Amino acid sequence: QGLEQYLLGVRALENEGGRNLYPLARAAGNLPFGTKGKLEWERVQALAEPVKDLARTVIPDQVPDSLEARVNAGPFSISGPVDNVFSSGRAVKDFGTITPARLLTQWIFHLVYSAAQDTSGTTVIVGRDPEKKKPAVSFEFKPVNKGKALIMIEEIARYFYLGQSRVLTFFCTPCFNMVQDLSKRGFDLDDASLIEKTHHQEKIKTIGI
Question: Which distant-in-sequence residues (6+ apart) come within 8 Å of 135 by Cβ?
Protein backbone atom coordinates (compact mmCIF):
# COMPACT_ATOMS: atom_id res chain seq x y z
CA GLN A 1 0.00 0.00 0.00
CA GLY A 2 1.09 3.57 -0.63
CA LEU A 3 1.40 4.79 2.96
CA GLU A 4 3.11 1.61 4.19
CA GLN A 5 5.57 1.78 1.28
CA TYR A 6 6.28 5.43 2.04
CA LEU A 7 6.98 4.72 5.72
CA LEU A 8 9.30 1.86 4.77
CA GLY A 9 11.03 4.15 2.28
CA VAL A 10 11.55 6.86 4.89
CA ARG A 11 13.10 4.28 7.21
CA ALA A 12 15.40 3.06 4.44
CA LEU A 13 16.31 6.62 3.46
CA GLU A 14 17.34 7.58 6.98
CA ASN A 15 19.50 4.49 7.39
CA GLU A 16 22.93 6.00 6.65
CA GLY A 17 24.84 3.59 8.89
CA GLY A 18 24.25 0.53 6.73
CA ARG A 19 22.28 -1.32 9.43
CA ASN A 20 20.06 -4.20 8.38
CA LEU A 21 16.62 -2.80 9.17
CA TYR A 22 14.69 -5.65 7.59
CA PRO A 23 14.19 -7.55 10.90
CA LEU A 24 12.87 -4.36 12.55
CA ALA A 25 10.46 -3.63 9.68
CA ARG A 26 9.25 -7.24 9.73
CA ALA A 27 8.82 -7.28 13.52
CA ALA A 28 6.86 -4.01 13.36
CA GLY A 29 4.36 -5.63 11.01
CA ASN A 30 5.23 -3.32 8.12
CA LEU A 31 5.89 -6.17 5.70
CA PRO A 32 4.06 -9.28 4.46
CA PHE A 33 5.20 -12.63 5.82
CA GLY A 34 7.90 -14.74 4.22
CA THR A 35 9.51 -14.30 0.84
CA LYS A 36 6.97 -11.71 -0.27
CA GLY A 37 7.97 -9.43 2.61
CA LYS A 38 11.67 -9.87 1.85
CA LEU A 39 11.14 -9.00 -1.81
CA GLU A 40 9.07 -5.95 -0.90
CA TRP A 41 11.82 -4.70 1.41
CA GLU A 42 14.42 -5.15 -1.32
CA ARG A 43 12.19 -3.29 -3.77
CA VAL A 44 11.79 -0.33 -1.39
CA GLN A 45 15.54 -0.33 -0.71
CA ALA A 46 16.18 -0.16 -4.47
CA LEU A 47 13.89 2.89 -4.73
CA ALA A 48 15.53 4.62 -1.76
CA GLU A 49 19.19 4.13 -2.73
CA PRO A 50 19.23 6.57 -5.71
CA VAL A 51 17.58 9.24 -3.54
CA LYS A 52 20.22 8.70 -0.85
CA ASP A 53 23.03 8.85 -3.43
CA LEU A 54 21.75 12.11 -4.94
CA ALA A 55 21.13 13.62 -1.51
CA ARG A 56 24.77 13.02 -0.55
CA THR A 57 25.88 15.20 -3.47
CA VAL A 58 23.64 18.20 -2.69
CA ILE A 59 23.01 18.11 1.07
CA PRO A 60 25.87 19.20 3.38
CA ASP A 61 27.47 16.47 5.47
CA GLN A 62 26.58 18.04 8.80
CA VAL A 63 23.81 17.93 11.38
CA PRO A 64 21.02 20.32 10.31
CA ASP A 65 19.66 23.01 12.60
CA SER A 66 16.07 23.94 13.36
CA LEU A 67 15.07 27.58 13.07
CA GLU A 68 12.36 28.83 15.43
CA ALA A 69 10.64 31.24 13.06
CA ARG A 70 8.25 34.03 13.95
CA VAL A 71 7.07 36.32 11.16
CA ASN A 72 4.37 38.98 10.86
CA ALA A 73 2.93 39.27 7.36
CA GLY A 74 0.23 41.92 7.22
CA PRO A 75 -2.48 40.91 9.71
CA PHE A 76 -1.09 37.36 10.00
CA SER A 77 1.39 36.11 12.59
CA ILE A 78 3.08 32.80 11.82
CA SER A 79 5.43 30.94 14.15
CA GLY A 80 6.94 27.50 14.39
CA PRO A 81 10.05 25.45 13.63
CA VAL A 82 11.66 25.35 10.19
CA ASP A 83 13.82 22.23 10.02
CA ASN A 84 16.66 21.06 7.77
CA VAL A 85 18.57 24.35 7.96
CA PHE A 86 22.26 24.46 7.06
CA SER A 87 24.70 27.36 6.79
CA SER A 88 24.10 27.61 3.02
CA GLY A 89 20.33 27.18 3.15
CA ARG A 90 17.75 24.44 3.60
CA ALA A 91 18.00 20.93 2.18
CA VAL A 92 15.35 18.22 2.38
CA LYS A 93 15.33 14.60 1.22
CA ASP A 94 12.12 12.63 0.91
CA PHE A 95 11.35 9.10 -0.23
CA GLY A 96 8.14 10.30 -1.81
CA THR A 97 7.68 11.50 -5.36
CA ILE A 98 8.24 15.24 -5.63
CA THR A 99 4.65 16.14 -6.40
CA PRO A 100 3.32 19.71 -6.75
CA ALA A 101 1.74 19.35 -3.29
CA ARG A 102 5.12 18.51 -1.74
CA LEU A 103 6.74 21.39 -3.61
CA LEU A 104 4.06 23.78 -2.32
CA THR A 105 4.68 22.65 1.26
CA GLN A 106 8.41 23.20 0.92
CA TRP A 107 7.82 26.54 -0.85
CA ILE A 108 5.86 27.78 2.17
CA PHE A 109 8.65 26.62 4.48
CA HIS A 110 11.14 28.37 2.19
CA LEU A 111 9.22 31.64 2.38
CA VAL A 112 8.96 31.50 6.18
CA TYR A 113 12.67 30.62 6.38
CA SER A 114 13.44 33.61 4.14
CA ALA A 115 11.19 36.01 6.03
CA ALA A 116 12.55 35.04 9.44
CA GLN A 117 16.10 36.17 8.61
CA ASP A 118 17.82 39.18 7.12
CA THR A 119 19.73 36.98 4.67
CA SER A 120 18.25 33.93 2.98
CA GLY A 121 19.63 30.89 1.24
CA THR A 122 18.30 28.29 -1.14
CA THR A 123 16.05 25.34 -0.41
CA VAL A 124 16.88 22.05 -2.15
CA ILE A 125 14.40 19.16 -2.25
CA VAL A 126 15.59 15.66 -3.21
CA GLY A 127 13.15 12.85 -3.95
CA ARG A 128 11.77 10.53 -6.59
CA ASP A 129 11.03 11.79 -10.10
CA PRO A 130 7.33 12.60 -10.69
CA GLU A 131 7.82 11.91 -14.41
CA LYS A 132 9.51 8.57 -13.65
CA LYS A 133 12.29 9.29 -16.13
CA LYS A 134 15.02 9.22 -13.46
CA PRO A 135 15.31 7.30 -10.18
CA ALA A 136 15.89 10.54 -8.25
CA VAL A 137 15.72 14.29 -8.92
CA SER A 138 16.26 17.54 -7.06
CA PHE A 139 14.45 20.90 -7.15
CA GLU A 140 15.92 24.17 -5.90
CA PHE A 141 14.19 27.33 -4.69
CA LYS A 142 16.36 30.41 -5.10
CA PRO A 143 16.89 32.90 -2.25
CA VAL A 144 13.98 35.28 -1.67
CA ASN A 145 14.53 38.64 0.00
CA LYS A 146 12.71 39.23 3.27
CA GLY A 147 10.30 41.89 1.99
CA LYS A 148 9.14 39.83 -0.98
CA ALA A 149 8.80 36.70 1.18
CA LEU A 150 6.50 38.54 3.60
CA ILE A 151 4.30 39.74 0.75
CA MET A 152 3.94 36.21 -0.62
CA ILE A 153 3.26 34.71 2.82
CA GLU A 154 0.44 37.22 3.35
CA GLU A 155 -1.00 36.34 -0.07
CA ILE A 156 -0.88 32.59 0.66
CA ALA A 157 -2.49 33.14 4.07
CA ARG A 158 -5.33 35.11 2.45
CA TYR A 159 -5.89 32.28 -0.03
CA PHE A 160 -5.95 29.83 2.87
CA TYR A 161 -8.72 31.76 4.64
CA LEU A 162 -10.56 32.30 1.37
CA GLY A 163 -10.50 28.54 0.83
CA GLN A 164 -12.36 28.08 4.10
CA SER A 165 -15.41 29.77 2.62
CA ARG A 166 -15.41 28.63 -1.01
CA VAL A 167 -13.68 26.23 -3.37
CA LEU A 168 -10.70 27.86 -5.05
CA THR A 169 -10.26 27.73 -8.81
CA PHE A 170 -6.81 26.16 -8.84
CA PHE A 171 -5.21 23.22 -7.07
CA CYS A 172 -1.57 22.15 -6.76
CA THR A 173 -1.21 19.93 -9.80
CA PRO A 174 -3.04 22.05 -12.42
CA CYS A 175 -1.34 25.19 -11.07
CA PHE A 176 2.09 23.60 -11.31
CA ASN A 177 1.41 22.28 -14.82
CA MET A 178 0.19 25.69 -15.91
CA VAL A 179 3.29 27.46 -14.58
CA GLN A 180 5.55 24.90 -16.25
CA ASP A 181 3.73 25.42 -19.55
CA LEU A 182 3.92 29.21 -19.30
CA SER A 183 7.63 29.02 -18.48
CA LYS A 184 8.32 26.82 -21.51
CA ARG A 185 6.42 29.31 -23.70
CA GLY A 186 8.64 32.17 -22.50
CA PHE A 187 6.17 34.09 -20.32
CA ASP A 188 7.51 36.35 -17.57
CA LEU A 189 6.50 34.50 -14.40
CA ASP A 190 7.16 37.63 -12.31
CA ASP A 191 4.38 39.49 -14.15
CA ALA A 192 1.68 40.00 -11.50
CA SER A 193 -1.06 40.18 -14.14
CA LEU A 194 0.03 36.99 -15.92
CA ILE A 195 -2.60 34.71 -14.35
CA GLU A 196 -5.40 37.16 -15.17
CA LYS A 197 -4.20 37.44 -18.77
CA THR A 198 -3.94 33.67 -19.12
CA HIS A 199 -7.37 33.11 -17.60
CA HIS A 200 -8.85 35.65 -20.04
CA GLN A 201 -7.22 33.88 -23.01
CA GLU A 202 -8.55 30.50 -21.89
CA LYS A 203 -12.06 31.95 -21.58
CA ILE A 204 -11.82 33.26 -25.13
CA LYS A 205 -10.74 29.80 -26.36
CA THR A 206 -13.59 28.16 -24.47
CA ILE A 207 -16.34 30.30 -25.95
CA GLY A 208 -14.76 30.09 -29.42
CA ILE A 209 -13.95 33.75 -30.11
Answer: 47, 50, 51, 128, 129
